[in-house]
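Before relying on records like the one below, remember that each one covers exactly one chain. Contacts with other chains, cofactors or solvent are not represented anywhere in the record.
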Amino acid sequence: MSQSTKVVPAGLPRAVGLLGGGVIGSGWAARFILNGVDVRLYGPSAGAVERVRKVLVNARRAYRRLTIVPLPAEGSITVVDSVEDAVRGVDLVQESAPERLELKQKLLAAAGRAAGRDVLICSSTSGFRPTLLQAKMDHPERLLVAHPFQPVYMLPLVELCGGERTAPEMLERAAAIFRAVGMHPLVVRKEVDGFIANRLGDALAREALWLVHDDFATLGEIDDAIRYSWGLRRAVIGAYRMVDGGAGMRQYMEQWAFKWPWSRLTDRPNINRAFLDKTAEQADTLVKADPLSVPAAQKRDDLLVAVLRGLRSERYGPGETLARWEQALCDRAPQPQLTNTSTPVRTPTLTVTSDWVDRGGRLAELRYLELCGYACSNLLRCISVDDEYLRNHGYYHSVETHLSQTGTLHIGDRIESSTQVLNADENRMRLFHVLTREGDKEPIATGEQMLVHVETGSGRIGPAQGEVRERLLELARLHAELPYPERAGTSIALR
């Protein structure tokens, strides 16, 4: 069988040049590198390289928990000594220098002079309007703001904002790039200081600090008021999708909006020494009252993974973004090759993470079933059951699974799996999966699975078609020469 070529999604850059290796720049580095994009980093600040290394460690850990879909081969990182070297041979430049206008203008002007004429240049600025950032550039038409959120490698939103001289097609091009690395680009309609999300966040922060300043609440109480109520609701559905359309919005505006002088958003507290001391003391109290068993960055990532994975099951909002990114990763990955069809089909090795285990620290039973399903999906890809086949011909549906556990797996264990086709015909296949801890000879679990082929559209059991049928029957013929698994066909019994 011929070797499949690697699929590169539309918009994915070959390489990016990063100007700045701080918190935001290192987050960009992690997102691009883990999406298979090469990075050229100009980070003059002390410790930039080490910061990127640490963020990459966290990002790898988070992505392993976020998805079981294999990531592409990591992009490389090259540390350079100048802006000119950073922008050489790249498709995108992302500036993430400190929020000083003169510094950003200088870096962006230098990048514009040195980069190729077709290179897109973006700034991560949190508030400067792009027209200001374009002021000293020779080719301002390719500059726009691409404002991310911390941690950049996890949060999907990136606000795109063009300046007075930005070419409209640059916004479209930027949107395609950021979608390709799993983000949700939001185009800001008009230039405004702080863009959208930061202005909303600033309004909330002002009101929160007034509540603290006037002793109505502590920082901890404010956090609880948000995270246990509308913070969850707005995270998944937004602020205005629950008002029953235009009529509901009109009723809300007429009946509720600005009817009571609750807010002090037009004013700000006096940030004097006493107020700073009070907020600092409350922040310390909050940390001591809620200690973490892992570093704060890891806990943050774990919580984001849990929310995003949960939302993915509903394919809504950020969950839809995650599902679309995972599908793109599947499409990019080379098709598994049956290099030796006379041996069981191997599945890429997976690592047990903390959210896979039960309270006793052992791999939960549901995960064994998921691993069998993952091995089955891998075999289906080997016989060319792809999106086109699913749309036009049919799919395989599992009708029976027999799971047998002979050992236990714990956090950090690496799992190898292999699949043997016990028998198959035009309408069905019977598979036997063996799950083994990496390095062990004896299996941890086995799974026997019966699947039937269902025709697309009619939903009736029907024969497999074309190349899928030929590959499956050939694989079944070759696997029939393998030793018959001892546990295959066994029923539940006391031993």
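Residues 432 and 485 are 8 Å apart (CA to CA).
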